[in-house]
């Protein structure tokens, strides 16, 4: 993920300061599923330490890992868009410490403060665009006859 999508790069200090009081510290053991594709998206996380793999269900195959997230990266964007259903799955690949946020509380704060809401929307939109690109490249590498065509 590019630095422009990490929380510290994407959000001005005033918006980070507004968001962080809603954070709750959580830990996940390696192998813990944070969420499953198709289920209700009611929270999100910012990774403090460790790594989280994002994966995509592929019928008849193991889930395809499309991206690995680490320090200061947003885990989960589906909470921001109706119908609030996960588009990917996520699993802790190492022990993970993270800040967890209640999606409904953050959405309410966004509705109350349009400037804050716009900052969150732009951040999440950048993350969605980056994840779409990463998923496309990874799936082409896995399933297209000649890969993504990227230079080696």
Automatic annotation (TrEMBL):
Which stretches are transmembrane?
A: none
Pfam families found in the cross-reference section: cNMP_binding
Family annotation (InterPro entries): cNMP-bd_dom (IPR000595), cNMP-bd_dom_sf (IPR018490), RmlC-like_jellyroll (IPR014710)
- CDD domains registered for this protein in UniProt: CAP_ED
Ranges for domain Cyclic nucleotide-binding come to 7-76
* Origin: domain of life: Bacteria
Q: What is this protein called?
A: Cyclic nucleotide-binding domain-containing protein
| Originating species | Streptomyces lucensis JCM 4490
Species classification: Bacteria, Bacillati, Actinomycetota, Actinomycetes, Kitasatosporales
């Amino acid at each position: 993920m590019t630095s422009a999508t990490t929380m510290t790069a994407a959000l001005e200090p005033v918006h980070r300061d507004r968001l962080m009081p809603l954070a709750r510290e959580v830990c996940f053991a390696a192998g813990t599923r944070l969420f499953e594709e198709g289920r209700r998206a009611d929270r999100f996380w910012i990774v403090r330490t460790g790594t989280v793999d994002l994966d995509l269900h592929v019928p008849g195959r193991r889930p395809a890992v499309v991206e690995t997230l680490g320090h200061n990266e947003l885990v989960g964007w589906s909470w921001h868009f109706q119908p609030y259903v996960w588009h990917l799955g996520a699993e802790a690949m190492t022990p993970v410490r993270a800040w967890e946020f209640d999606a409904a509380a953050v959405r309410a704060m966004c509705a109350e403060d349009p400037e804050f809401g716009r900052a969150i929307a732009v951040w999440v939109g950048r993350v969605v665009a980056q994840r779409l690109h990463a998923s496309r490249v990874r799936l082409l590498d896995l399933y297209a006859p000649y890969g993504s065509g990227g230079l080696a």
